[in-house]
User: Fold this.
Amino acid sequence: MNFTKLVGAHVSTLGGVHHSISHAHHIGGTALALSLRSQRRWESPALDQAHVQLFKERAVEHGYGAHTVLPHGSYLVNLGNPDKAKREKSYVAFLDELRRCEQLGLKLYNFHPGSTVGACTIEESIEYIATCINRAHEETKQMICVLENMVTEFITIALLDPTLLAGAGHVIGSKFEELGEIISRINRVLESAWIHVIRLQPKNLGYDIRTPEAYRKTMALFANYIGFPFLRGLHLNDSKAPLGSRKDRHENIGKGLIGLEAFRMIMNDQRLNGIPFILETPLGEKNDLRVWKEEVELLYGLVETKEDG
Assistant:
């Protein structure tokens, strides 16, 4: 079947990057996300070239094109840090991941924009982020950097690297306006692949999508500040936390406080065709991939046909 919606999950690369394709195919996914290096360590070994070749072969075999794969960047990267040395350290890791994408023949790269770490203004941090992206564009070949909108505005505890994240810094990207400001600073070039893009994350941002009217209003805001041509992917999960809580607590589709109706609207919104939808739902204690397989089937079951009216 030729699906207009591309649904998958963030799958494991344990044992080699090529295994991500097999896992995605196993759950019936038509899209996938993966990590290209350690998410929580600065140093990471180079990709095994044999695994790179197997990744490409399996992607062709199972029909995963470059537009269906959305790698996720390291949580350590903070391009908005006002400390020049720390920002440069982040940039080196950022560029390394973009080049890993190129090795695999991919075009999309999803990352967290960054934070002020409480040491500069939001506007200054946005400028740092845009400058790094423009610099990376000069050092890569038509990669599409997918900015992730964030669940919370503030970070108060450094869970990963205290030297980078400590302090009550403003997390850039919790508001559509901030992402629009970054996009406005990206240098435009003739190749459309270099146009900057954004990822909409329907969670606890204060953006409501639970009812038809709320969904319409949120999408209108997105269109106003960003524009649907810039949307290159969605992360999907229900939520254990209420709207506006600023808490990122994932729940399985239809079992949380967002509700199944929101996902029905997403699956039938023609403006969202052809971009990867990535499940970020819990697999449970047994890490059972059947959970994702069932959720992929559930989401496709929400697609209305002409016969449905």
